[in-house]
Amino acid sequence: MTKLRWGILGCAGIAIRACIPGIKQSETGVVSAIASRNLEKSQEVAARLDIPKAYGSYEELIADSDIDAIYIPLPNHLHKEWTIRAAQAGKHVLCEKPAALTAAEVGEMVTVSEEAGVLFAEAFMYRHHPRYERVKAIMQSGEIGDIRGIHGTFTFSNPDDSKNVRYVREWGGGSVYDVGCYPLSAARFLLEREPEAVTTHAFFSPEHDNVDMMMSGLVEFSGNVALTFDCGMWASFRNTLEILGSKGRIVIPSAFVTPTEESGHFQVFVGNEQREEKVPFLNQYALQVDDMAYAAWGEKAQRFPAKDAILNLKVIDACLKSATERARVQL
Question: Residues 174-199, buried b or exposed e (16+ Cβ, 10 A)?
């Protein structure tokens, strides 16, 4: 079987810990090269992870004619530049979330990708797992009644890591970029529509370059439905999603990261009855790269078109504007 040949642009933890293993476990992909601005670093990672080629610059990897697709796990402020450069070199691009710092930036990235005839995707791995189609099917079946609201959380605590790129404001630091984007994306995906307005409150920490270390928000959708969410980088760990209906509710205890077989399961409550929906233990990162490969080969359409990333950044833009101005922002 033909394999999509991936190049990894940077040695970030998410690449080493999750995406590279995901590509290796996929049906369609192979990791052919990795690049770092430090050649010794890329060589060390390549040797450790059995990657054939290591480069000491991003430019060299992008110029490699044996690479079909680029995965970008760089700091957020570099996403736009290197997506555009990779697309112009004829490479498909899978870019870590958030796709860029603003919806306008993502719009430029999508336009260049389309002009170059390559695919662009934002790396929200969770939504490629079939359990979310099952959740959506239960919602649409009417089993839990009319949907009244969604509540999502994604928090972790890492305030002492002073050199973390998440704590540099100009680089796109902050919790809504890093983890709040997940419940925002999930609500849009499950409700199949875009929000109408956003109101948020944030804790901007002077100790961390005034990025939002915690944010809570209300995201209004049509049909009298809203998402309430919170995200943070200085709070106890959670990553949950609850869909509330007039007759019941769906609870996903581990909504976005599923480190164990059991953590992917979710519960359905209707009246006095409860059941557990068991789902297969699948590598979400592998499913994500398979989706891009099949689309690149023309066998299937991308499940999530590139313009979805623009729409998600529009909501993030509004969240930051609302928190900064302490005002409701209409979309």
Answer: bbbbbbbbbbbbbbbbbbeeebeebb
